[in-house]
Amino acid sequence: MYKLGKGPAKKDKRNIMMANLLSSKTFDIPEKFDTDSNLKVEIPLSMFGNDEYGDCVMVGRANQTLRFEYFQQKQILPITTDMVLKEYWSEEGGIGPDFDNGLLILDALKEWKNKGWEILGKNYTIYSFAEIIPKNINEVKASICYLNGIMTGVELPNSSQDQIGKVWEVTTGPDAEFGSWGGHCVFVCGYTPIGPICITWAAKQQMTWDWFTTYCSEAYAVICNKDSWVINNPLNIPLLEGYLQEIEKM
Length: 250
Hints:
The protein has one domain (18-249): Cysteine proteinases (Cathepsin B, Chain A), CATH 3.90.70. The protein contains eight helices and ten strands. The protein has helices at 18-21, 35-39, 56-73, 81-92, 105-114, 137-147, 209-215, 237-249; strands at residues 33-34, 117-119, 122-124, 128-132, 150-156, 167-168, 182-191, 196-200, 203-207, 216-223. The strands form two sheets. Strands 1, 4, 5, 6, 7, 8, 9 and 10 form an eight-stranded mixed β-sheet that branches. A hairpin with a 2-residue loop joins strand 8 (196-200) and strand 9 (203-207). Helix 3 packs across helix 4 (81-92). The chain is globular, with a radius of gyration of 17 Å. It starts with 17 loop residues before the first helix and ends with a helix.
């Protein structure tokens, strides 16, 4: 019922760092934030095939795209499981269900930016993305509330299986070992004083800040539209554009 599918966290020295993009101006970071409440809409939750296949990275993209496009278009895109799996098979190598080895988040983000993915005949891309330091809680909170969610990779301990639908919190013993269950991609849609809330397996899952900083191996802020999408823009957009120009020269 619960499939994983995120490959090992991949490092790239060319990654833009979110800490560098947060401008020097001050902005409020609320004590709690929920993307869907902020958008004032109830977006349907779906497995998108993650109960049968290791397509969690693409499921994270689908959940984030639903919120991006509602923010911009004020409509919920009818993203289906078939659409998500089609893109998953394509980015995995085009082999299909018999080759179900998951994806790397960083590779998928680059594909989303450079190529995009098709939904009902329209191609959806992102402008850019930036790496977040998971242990920097203020950076995590700012990215969630000003960009309406972040893409994260977690190395699930076996103990998290018994905590599904409860609260993911750090335990002790062999089952608490980093990655003992496996790598998983989740879209973090909000946070409370307790910790982040992610969407996974067609449900919202609360975790503690301690759990997140212990098991999160990678996190990314995704910038869909540099001009109109960001609320009360906290990002240094000229710096971002400069970074992108330098990356293209590499």
